[in-house]
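Agenda item 2: zinc ion complex prediction
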Amino acid sequence: MATATATGRKYIDCSEFPSDSNCTLKISGKEDEVLPVAAQHAAAVHGHEDTPELRDQLRQMLKDE
Ligand SMILES: [Zn+2]
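Presented output:
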């Protein structure tokens, strides 16, 4: 399993997240930058609760840029 490096940027593509809004948002940056933004976005736009479980789910969706 790849690990994040100091310069390694990750991205999360909202279009791959199960939702009914056909959202195409893509967030990229370091893991600890992407996760809070993605969690806020999921809560604000997709009605998810910002929980540790949600963040775990989001973390699994991170990909190397
Ligand atoms: Zn979205």
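Discussion summary: The radius of gyration is 11 Å.
Owner for follow-up: CH.
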